[in-house]
Write a structure and sequence with these properties.
Number of helices: 18
Strand content: 15-25%
Helix content: 25-40%
Largest sheet: 10 strands, mixed
Structural class: alpha/beta
Distance between the termini: 61 Å
Length: 497
């Protein structure tokens, strides 16, 4: 009868009191008995540490509790601390708010022993829980047993808690990076590139609970940048023999991020541009024509971005509060922006006789629109009306050359628009502010002028639909840009997702 090797279950813990007992019960009740459960508390602010000590007292032969000396920002540090305290021949990394299937360690180890594998992967059941507690389940991973190539394992994903890793393999590839949210994406990708015998197992080993508001699912700039850092780490540290597969895994993640973290499209496009020399030499990607075509299109976009400048109106006695300025400075662009208040001190109402006549006829909004267009043409940026509130930042618009948006199916909004410097559509609109264009002196509002120019001169259909990455501007459907919520808040408009 063979001796059962010690297997280490390694668990970083932070503010998990609501789910921690459930997790610990699933760990101590494993059918494989020769385990150590190393828990590292990240200076939790709830009762997590007390719960850990309670379980350590109840199961002193299995549970070993440590506490970080200082709070670490990313979970990779907790995994590394747990590893340093571990002794197992095999390592199983997991999270403290999930559930380990009761036979998981037994099944994973049996496969490792039977096939002499240094990395074994089961499949997981993902449980998505909404704010009302409603759960939806689906499988993660392959529901069949087979020997996997390094490339197939890499492309399959980076769910750390589905895999049993031989200690010698982990020692070969090194510790988790401690400066990224997606430490699994960074390090497991590297581990899978160096594994010598990978086995996929037809057995559910884990219940992964994904809740609304989780850090990894948060659409924030820090999370988007952390994703890019993790991908760069994987590419820089993987086995060069399998770099093509790592690159394909990375570009699939980028494509997914463009859908789920679209607010930061400009950052992901910059990342694609950086990777393009590698992408063009990777047959795994270039042979996938739909994927490669998308990447090539985005990479070929000109490096002409809408600058982080926000124009607002202070004409005709309008007051722009300090609070409003701070709001625009911090929310219009993810990395912050500069607010320019247009008023009579920096905009000459007499420079254009047509504008002076419009003001004399009481068409003040037309004057504001004219100077917004003029500033954008000369310097680039975006105009935001004082009745607009920002829900999502404008970074997704920065590579669009310029943008306008529909307020409804057949009407353009004049409350929000933007462009890079010297945009020709903006110039065409500026040309409408003249007696020659408006021979009858009808003083069409800016919304009408936008519709006329985009429809007649640039052939955009008046269909209320999105038309992206067109020259010289893109057009956005109402749900992408401006939602009229006047029924609730008077004449308020909102930048929408």
């Amino acid at each position: 009868m063979r001796t059962q090797p010690l297997i280490s279950i390694l668990v970083p813990v932070y503010n998990s009191e609501k789910y921690l007992r459930r997790f610990l019960d699933s760990a101590v009740q494993q059918t494989y008995n020769n385990i150590e459960i190393i828990c590292v508390d990240n200076l939790s602010e709830d009762n997590s540490y007390s719960i850990l000590l309670e379980y350590q007292q109840r199961f002193p032969e299995k549970i070993f509790v440590y506490q970080a000396k200082e709070h670490y920002e990313f979970v990779g540090a907790g995994r590394n601390i747990a590893y340093r305290y571990s002794h197992g021949e095999y390592l199983y990394f997991c999270d403290s708010d999930d559930i380990i299937q009761f036979r998981a360690i037994e099944m994973l180890y049996n496969a490792a022993f039977t096939y002499d594998s240094d990395l074994v992967c089961g499949y997981a059941i993902a449980v998505l829980v909404d704010e009302n507690g409603t759960a939806k389940k689906f499988n993660l991973g392959f529901k069949r047993s087979f020997r996997a190539s390094n490339d197939a394992a890499i492309i399959s994903g980076a769910e750390l808690w589905m895999r049993l890793i031989k200690r010698s393999l982990f020692e070969k590839t090194g510790l988790f990076p401690e400066d990224v949210t997606f430490d699994d994406v960074a390090q497991l990708t590297v581990i899978q590139s160096y594994a010598e015998n990978i086995r996929f197992l037809q057995y559910p080993v884990y219940y992964y609970f994904r809740r609304e508001g989780s850090t990894a699912g948060t659409p924030s700039l820090s999370v988007a940048l952390s994703s890019i850092r993790a991908e760069r780490y994987a590419l820089n540290n993987c086995d060069p023999a399998h770099k093509d597969a790592v690159l394909k895994f990375v570009v699939h993640r980028i494509k997914a991020n463009l859908d789920t973290r679209w607010q930061y499209t400009d950052y992901f496009i910059d990342w694609i541009k950086e990777l393009m020399p590698l992408i063009q030499e990777d047959e795994m990607i270039t042979s996938d024509r739909p994927l490669y075509s998308t990447l090539k299109f985005l990479s070929d976009l000109k490096d002409i971005k809408i600058p982080n400048i926000v124009y607002v109106s202070g004409f005709f006695g309008k007051q722009v509060s300090k609070q409003r300025i701070e709001e625009l400075e911090t929310t219009a662009f993810a990395e912050g922006g500069r607010v320019v208040i247009m008023d009579e001190s920096n905009c000459d109402l007499d420079e254009n006789p047509y504008i002076r006549n419009a003001v004399n006829h009481g068409n003040y909004d037309l004057a504001e629109g004219y100077f917004a267009l003029k500033n954008i043409y000369e310097k680039g940026g975006i105009y935001i009306h004082d009745n607009v509130r920002i829900v999502n930042c404008f970074n997704f618009c920065k590579y669009l050359f310029g943008f306008f948006g529909f307020e409804n199916e057949n009407t353009y909004t004049d409350k929000v628009f933007g462009a890079s410097q010297e945009n020709q559509a903006i110039k065409s609109l500026l040309d409408t502010f003249s007696d020659e264009w408006d021979k009858k002196g009808e003083y069409f509002n800016l919304s009408a002028r936008i519709g006329i120019i985009l429809t007649i001169k640039y052939d955009f259909p008046l269909d209320g639909k999105t038309h992206l990455y067109k020259k010289p501007v893109s057009v956005l459907q109402p749900s992408m840009l401006v939602v009229n919520v006047s029924d609730m808040f008077g004449s308020l408009h909102c930048i929408s997702s």
